[in-house]
## 1
Amino acid sequence: MASWPQNPRLINTRIPRLDGMAKASGRAKYPSDIQPEGMLYGVMLYSPHANATITSIDTKAAEKMPGVKAVVVITEAGKKVQYQGDDIAAVAAETEEQARDAARAIKVEYQILPHVVTEAQSMAAGAPEIVKGGNTRKARAITRGKPDEAMKTADVTIEATYALPVITHVCLETHGLTAKWEGQDKLVAWASTQSVRTVAGELAQSFEIPTANVTVLTEVMGGGFGSKFGADIWGKTAAQLSQKAGGRPVRMFLDRVHEHLAAGNRPSATGHVQLGATKDGKLVAMIAETHGTGGLQGGSQFPLPYIYDVPNSTRTHADVFVNGGRLRAMRAPGHPQGCAIMEAAMDDLADKLGIDPLEFRLKNLPSGQTPDLKPVYEAEVKMGAELIGWKENRKPRGQNGKGPIKRGLGMALHTWAGRGVDGNQVSCTINPDGSVELKSATQDIGTGARTVLAIIAAEVLGLQPTDIYSNIGNSTFPPGQGSGGSTTTPSMSPPTYQAAIKARDALFAKLAPGLKVAPDDLSLADGKLLVKGEVKMSWKDACRKLGMMPISVIGEFDQSLASSGVGGCQFADVSVDTETGVVKLNKIVAIQDTGQVIDKLTWESQVYGGIIGGLNYGLFEERVMDPTTGVMLNPDMELYKLAGASDIPEIIVRCYEPDDQKRRGVIGVGEPPTVSTAAAIANAVTNAIGVRVAEWPMSPRNVLNALASKSQNQREA
Amino acid sequence: MTEHDPKSQGGPSGPSRRDFLRGSGLAAATAVFTAQATTAIEEAQAAEAGPAVLSGEVKLTLQVNGEARTCTVEPRSTLLDTLRNRLDITGPKRVCDRASCGACTTIIDGAPVYSCTTLAVSCQGKTIETVEGFDTGESGIPHAFHQNDGLMCGYCTPGFVTACKAYLDKNKGKEPTLEEIKQGLDGNICRCGTYIGVFQAALAAAKAMKGA
C-alpha cells in the first residue's frame, strides 16, 4: 500500500498556481481567445418562443449576406422548439457582426403552441400537456422503517413547505469551441470544457471519424461548474460549419442570453416535510413529498433525508416538466437542495422542541457508517461554534432585540464523496537537459490541477513546482479525469505520484552503476543528487548523464492514495433589516475536511469559492420566468444577481486535518463547501427575524413575505 | 444613475456607473459615423433588397498599450470586439456584453471603462491600456494576484486586475482599507468566488505600489 510522504516539503504548503501569472496578466489564451488563421465567426439562432412548431425556415437571404460562408439548419420545418433558447440554425461569417446579421436574416415562421414555464403553471389543473403522459412524473416512494406509525409516536412534529428556485451556472466563458478541420478526417477543437476526452469522443462519433483523429485542447477554461462536459450541439455545429466552409476554422461561443437559457441549470426543489422527534430531541420520523424542475426531462431528484439519522422515513419525488432549458450537473448536484430543506426542517423542529439547534444536530448524527463521519462532524461543529461565537452570541429564534435590525446565527452540515477514479494515468518524462514534463488528458477547471500535479512531482524529485512542465488539457495525452464530482485531484494525484516515483527510480537505476553505488544510496533534494546523503551533483548534471535518451514512464491510479466521503459544517451570522427585508452577511465560518491536502493556497480558494457560490444561492440567484410570454426575464448579469465585492462578508475557513484525516489520502474539495452555505444563511435569517423564510433566495421580497405572513398569523390569532 | 445603484451609495470616489457610461461615449460615437460608412451601408442595401445590412467599414487607428494599431471596424463595433477579434488583444473578456460584470474593463485616458459598451470609433485619439500592458514585475498588480491566488478559472481576472490598477492609480500614495478596495472593485463580478484572494491581492498591490 502506497502512502503520501510523512513530512512533505511542498505538499500541503501554500504554492501559487503555475499559470497564475499568465491568467493575471491577460496572456493566458482561453478557448474563446484562440484565433487560428482564417477563422470565421459562428452565431447561433435560437427560439424566441417557449413552445412552437417551425412551419417554415428560409436561409436564402442569410446565405447571400456579406461575409457569410456557411449556414446550417438544426431544427427543420415541421419540428418543434420546446423552450426559449432551443437551437434552430447557425451561421458562420467573416466577422462576428456579419454573422449576427445573417442569423437575424434567417426567416423562421412559427405556429406558437401553449407553454408552461413555471412549476405552478405546469401543475395547474387544465395545463397544456407538454410531455406525453403528463407534466409530472412521480417516482416511487423511498421508505425506511414505518414512518406513518412512528410519526404518531413523536412528541413534537413540524410540517412545512420549503422551496428553492432554478438557478443557472453563469459560466463566465460561455459554452463553445473553435473547430478546425485538417483535411477531410482530422479535427482540432479548442474547447471550453471540463472534459477534453468527452468532447473528443463526441466529436469523433458525430463525424464518424476515429477518436485518434480528434484533438481537443483546453489550456485553460473559464468556468464550468458541472455544465461543460460535452461537445454540445454548439460545438458540433461549429465543426459542421467549418466543414461547409471548406475547413476554415469556426469560433462558436454562446452569447450571454443563450448561455442562461440553454447551457444548463440547477433544478428547483420544493419539499413538503413532516419531521418528528422525541421530546429529548431524537429524530423519529420524516414524511416528505418533494418536486423540482429541470426543464423537459427528469433529474431534479436530490438527497432527503440528508445527513441525519432518521430511523423512519418516506419520501416521494416528482419531476415537473416545463418549457425551459435542460438541467445540468451543478456544483454538488442535488446536495444544496437536500441540505437546505433538511436543515430548515431541523432548525424548525429544534425551535419547537426548545433545544439548541446545534445540540439537536449532534444528537442525530448517524453512527457506524463508512467512513464514520460522526467524530469528524463533532470536532468540526465544535471548531465552528467557537469561531462564530455560538454560545455567546446566539439567542433563541426571534429574541434578537426590539429594533428594526435583527441579528441572527444559523448553521448547517453537509457531505460529499469526492473520490478518485481508476484508469487515469500521468506520464512523466525526465529529459537529459533536466526538464521534467507531466502529461495527462485532464484539464484545469480553475481548481489548480496543473499546479497540483507539479507539486507532487517536484516533491518526489527534489525540485520546485516551477521546474515541472505540467502539460494537461489535450485529449491525445494519457487518459485523465473529467473535472466533475470533485474527482480531479483525487484521481490525478495518485498517478502523478506514482509516475514521479517510477521516473526517479529509473533515473537512479541508470545513474547508480556509473557512480559505483547502489540505486538505494541515491536521493534527491533541493535540486541536487545525493549519494548516501552527501551532495554529489546538481539535478541538471545528473540528468545530463542520461545521454540521448530521456526517461519516460506512466503512472497509474492507486486507490490507497485517495479516498472518498467528507463532512463539513458552516455557520452564518447575518443582520436583517425587518423594514426593508435586506439581509446583510456579517460573517461566515466554514470547517472542511478533505483528507490529504496538496496545495493549501488553492484548497482555500476552492473553499472560499464554494462558500461564495452558496452565498449567491442563499441570497441572490433566481431564474425568473414569465408565465405569460414564456421567456426568462433576467437572462443577463444585472437582474440575474450575483455577489459583487461589497456583498462578501468576513469568511473564516479552517481545514480539519488531524493526522488520521491526512492518512485517508486525497479527496476532492470543489463541491462540499458550496453545499451548506445557503442553508446556514436561511437558518440565520430565520433565527434573526423569528419567522421561517421558507423560500430561497433570502431576497427582500421573500423576507418581507415571511414577515407579512407572521403578522397576519398574529392578527388572526 | 448613481442614486439608483445600491452598490454605489455613499461610496468613495471610485468608478461609478455614471462614470462608466460617460466613458463609454455612446453619444460621441454617432458623430464618427463617417461618410464612408454611410456609403458602404447604402451599397450593401442596394445589393441586397432583403434585410437592412449595417456593415459599413471604418479604418481606425487606436493607441493600445503604447502602440498605434490599425484595423477596419464597423461603426457599431465595440471596443471590446475590436480588441479581441481584430487586434488579437484578448486580455479583456466578453462575459455579460452589457456593462454589468467588468470582465471587459480597459483603461481609457486613465479611467476604467467597460469596453463591451464602448464603440471602437469613439476611442480614436485616446490612450487605451489593457491588462497586457501592465507591469508584470514584483511590484505590479498581476504579481499580487498571482501570489495571493486572486483567481481561479481566471476569466474575470483581467477585468479585476484592470479595475484594481485604475483604482490604485487614482488613489496613489494612499493605503486603502478593505472596505475601500471592495468599493473600488464593485464594478466586477467573479463566478468562481475568488473575491477573498482578490481583496488580499489588491491590498498587497497597494502596499507594493506605495513602497515602490
## 2
Amino acid sequence: MSINTDMTVRVVAISQVAEKVKRFRLERADGGAMPVFSGGAHVVVAMRDGDLLRRNPYSLMSSPRDTSAFEISTLRVENSRGGSAFMHEKLKVGDRLIVSQPINLFPFDGRGRKHILMAGGIGITPFIAMMDQMQREDRPFELHYAIRNRGHGAYWKELTERYGPHRVKIYVDDEKLFIPVDQILGAQPLGTHLYVCGPAGMIDGVLGRARGAGWPEQNLHCERFLAPPPGKSFRVILRKSAKTLTVATHQSILEAVEAAGVDAPFLCRGGACGQCETSIVSYQGALEHNDHYLEPDDKQSGRKIMICVSRLNGPEITLDL
Amino acid sequence: MLVVGIKSRPVYTGLSIDAHAPRHLFALENEGARAVLEQADKACLAKSEILYIGADSFATELAGLKPFDLWTAHTVPILLNRLKVTLQTAKMGTRLYIAGTESFIGQAMQVALELGIDFNSIRTEHRGSLARRVQCVHCKGITDKVTTSPYTCTHCGLPLLVRDHYSRRLGAFQGVNIDAEEPGTAPAPEVLFP
C-alpha cells in the first residue's frame, strides 16, 4: 500500500515561460510549510478533471530549500492523454490539486567530483532544482541543454544569467548547434557523474556513447518518465479484491484499478521505480512491457507486470491485487 | 575464532578488463602482478599504466609485457601517493584495477574513494597472503598483517577478536576486545589468515 501523506495545494500563480511551457506555483491549502526535498525529486499531481482522476508525475523545479511553495513546469503535448491539456487549458489560479510527498528517483551522487547534466527540452526541470542545490553546496557542475529553438526552450536565458555561460551551455537545433557529446565525455576528470533527462532517443544515445567511452555504469544516471502508451482495451480481474474491470484504450491498468477504488502501490507512474510491480496470476494474449524496470527474463517469464505503463494485447489478465 | 556472515566483508571478483576503456590503470602488489600476467588478452597493455610494489622478479615479468608505462615503488605509501597524483589528473574513461593483499586493496581503494570514484567501478583481485589490516575499535589503532584471531592490539595491548565487519573508509576490519567481561580469559590465538 502507498502511505497516504498527500497534501492539498492551491495554485497561486501560472506563468507562460516558453511557447508551450507553463509554470505552476503550488502552496499548501492549509497554509503550512512544504517539505524540503532534494534536487531531482518529483511529485505525483492528482487532478480532478470532470469524472476523471488524473495522476501525473512532475519534477520539482523550485529551490529544494524553499518551503513556501512547490513549482512545476509542464509542456503542452499534442495528442496528450489529457494531463497536459488539463494543466494548460483548464487549471486556473485558485484551483486545488492533490500532490504527493516529494520522491527522488534521480538524485545526484554526492561523492562525485564533478557533475555533468545533459537536458533535452522539458527534461530541464529536474536539473533546475539540482543546480540550485549544487550551487549552494559548492559542487562543480556543467549544464548542457539542447532546445529546439530559442522561443520553444524554457529557462535557458535565466539559467545562463544565474550560473554563467561557463557552466550553462545552450544548444539550439534550429541554429544547427548540437551537444558535442564525445568531446564533453572525453574531457572530464575521473570521478565525474553524468545525468541525462530528455527524450528517450537522447538518453539512449548519450548513455550509449558514455559506455563506449569507458564510463562506468555507476557514474551514469538518467530519468525517463514515460506516459503510459495507449493500446487496445482489455479486461482485468483483480483476484484479491474480487473485481473485474476494463482498461480503456488511453488508460493504464493502474489508472483503471484506482478508478475502481482499489489502492495499488505506486511511486513514479512512469515505469522506472519498481513500486507497482504486480504478480500475474494468468493471462490470455501478449503482454506489452513498456517499463524500464523489469529485467528481460522477468518480462519473458510472464509472471510480473509494472501496471503503471505496461498492458495486455489480448482479452483478459488476472492480477494478484 | 572469527565472526563471519557480515555483509560489509568485501568481495573481490577479479580483474576483468573493461573493453571500452581507452586507458587502464593497475595498482599491483607483489603476487597481485599475477592477476595481470595471467590475463589471456594482453592487448590492453599498450594503453595501460602499471604502478607496482613488490618482488623484483614480478617487476621484470611485468616489464616484459611492454605496458605503456610501468612504475615501481619501494614502499606502499609511496605507491599510494603516486596513485593519488595519477588519479587526480586522470580523465573519465580510465579504469582502475587493484590486485594484491586485502590490506593493499583496501588502502588503494581509500585513495580512489577520496577522489569520488565509486568502489563498485573498481575491479579488484585478492592475491597473496590472507593477512588483515585491523582497527582496534577501542583505541582506534590500526595493526597491519594480522594473521591470528584473537590478536593483541599493537597500540593498546587488548586481546581482540577479528570480525568480518569491514570499513571501506578505513580500509580495515574491526577488532573487538574478546575478554571484556573477564579480563585474562582470552582464548589462545589461532592462525586464521596465513
